[in-house]
Amino acid sequence: MTAPVVIIGAGPAGIAAAGVLVEAGVRPVLVDEAPRAGGQIFRQPEPDLLRPAKQLYGFDAARATASFSAAASLESEIDYLPNTQVWGAARGMLHVVNADTAFVQPWSSLIIASGAMDRICPVKGWTAPGVYSLGGAQVALKANASLIGRRVLFAGTGPLLYLVAYQYALAGARVVAVLETGRPRRAWRHLPSLMSGKATFVRGLYYMAALRARGIAIHQGVELVEVMRGADEKVAALSFRHGRRDAILSCNALAIGHGLKAESQIADLIGAEFSFDAGQRQWLPRADLDGRSTIPNVYLAGDGMSVRGSDVAELTGRIAASALLVDAGYAAHPRLSRDRRLVERSARFRRGLDKAFVYPHAQAASLPDEVTVCRCEELTAGAIRQAVLASGETEINRIKAFCRVGMGRCQGRICGPVTAELIAATGGVPIESVGRIRAQAPLKPVPLCELAKGLS
Fold first, then answer.
1. Which domain of life is it from (predicted)?
2. Are strands 116-118 and 260-262 parallel, antiparallel or unpaired?
């Protein structure tokens, strides 16, 4: 019996890929970690917390609704596995677990549309209760109809910073301020690239203007100093430096994020080759223009290949599925040429965003020694520096072996980027020479009782 085509991820890329395959008469297996299709960008609320699409998704309400309709129309034509987590992968098989059991899912061809997650530059005190990532704050609002706090401070950089702050303001939270670590207003030389994003660029300007119209201050060029705790040990304020001025803003919740990073661990486990993307300042799995990875029959799509937003993710999902079909002897999807052109046009906008919203690598490299970097293993910036100096090593997996950084529950997802910056600065080497933390199974924590069910 021939193994099926498997798609990992039911966000815009995964749903689009499934649609193309079904049109060609192929019945794929769609593995989704979430309970309902949509991915992070179109995350659906719990059934008893339904709200109007416009309230949940704003300008993307029509696209979200269309995505849900597409997913619903595919249900009888695909094998959909919600609430199913991929914890290990190898050529021809995925190790997965869901609420019922653990099992092995075989595949003949694989489309990885695993999406992205928050990238965070730590700050002193950032492990205090009440501190969330921007994505976590958005999940609370979309999926659970709840706010992370009533007086919320937003800090970091990137388009998501303004979007989530705007969504919280609409939901009734008091947004204390938006603290931007970059200086996008000074990126005028990149304005033509940003304007090539057209509607997406205009939306970003709208979010900023809407925040200001509500009296919400936006400070750019900020250096975050310390998350301050109250008597209950929860976050109470954030101190920061703005130019020559030191300031403190009180809050009862803080959402922080510095752009997104591709979730590429599954591609790593299967053996795909990676290359360093200087613009996004992260390692990405290599792929050709149609999403073919360096491993036969493994295709990449969406933000898991390169962070470019939900519009491009949908396009790359269709392109990857078409490439799979062509390689299997089917005709190319009729929209392939058009989708390729749209992806190529988006590259200029992406480069503009990378220049306007830069990961604060200088701040990451100069973190005070006492700042916690790897919260799973309770390792500080000083401990990582000491490991580099004592060993003379500057390769991140060697440093991992010496001090356990990245060995905890998140497997380096959170601490990996800043650890690389610390190693590069301490060892005096280029960031790309540090490498990346290699993926290891289990990719995410798996209860032993669930694995035991699969063995019984």
1. Bacteria
2. antiparallel
Q: What is the DSSP letter of 124?
A: B
Question: One-letter amino acid identity for 232?
Answer: D
Note the pTM of the prediction, 2 decimals: 0.94
Element (H, E) at 323: helix 310-327
Phi, psi angles (nearest 5°) of residue 157 = -155, 160
- Fold classification of 361-433 is Arc Repressor Mutant, subunit A (1.10.10)
351-409 pLDDT, tens digit each: 999 988 999 999 999 999 999 999 999 999 999 999 999 999 999 999 999 999 999 98
Q: For 139-176, write each residue's pLDDT tens digit.
A: 999 888 899 999 999 999 999 999 999 999 998 999 99
CATH topology of domain 5-115+263-354: FAD/NAD(P)-binding domain (3.50.50)
Closest residue by Cα to residue 346 from 198, 242, 244: 198
- How many whole angstroms separate alpha carbon 101 and alpha carbon 103? 7
CB atoms near residue 283 (< 10 Å):
22
8 A C-beta contact, residue 38 and residue 11: yes
Q: How many Å apart are CA 319 and CA 180, to the nearest integer?
A: 35
Compute the C-alpha angle 176/179/181, nearest 5°.
Answer: 170
For 335-368, the DSSP string reads: THHHHHHHHHHHHHHHHHHHHHS---HHHHHT--
DSSP state of 3: P
Token pair, residue 248, equals 């403190």
In the chain, the amino acid numbered 137 is: A
Beta bridge partner(s), residue 300: 112
Q: Tell me: the pLDDT tens digits for 411-425?
A: 999 999 999 999 999
Q: Is 65 helix (H, G, I), strand (E, B) or coil?
A: helix
The mean per-residue pLDDT over the stretch 303-308 comes to 94
The DSSP annotation for 274-294 comes to: EEEETTTTEEEE-B-TT-BBS
Q: Dump pLDDT digits (tens) for 235-266.
A: 999 999 998 899 999 999 999 999 999 999 99
Do the two domains 119-259 and 361-433 of this chain adopt the same fold?
Answer: no
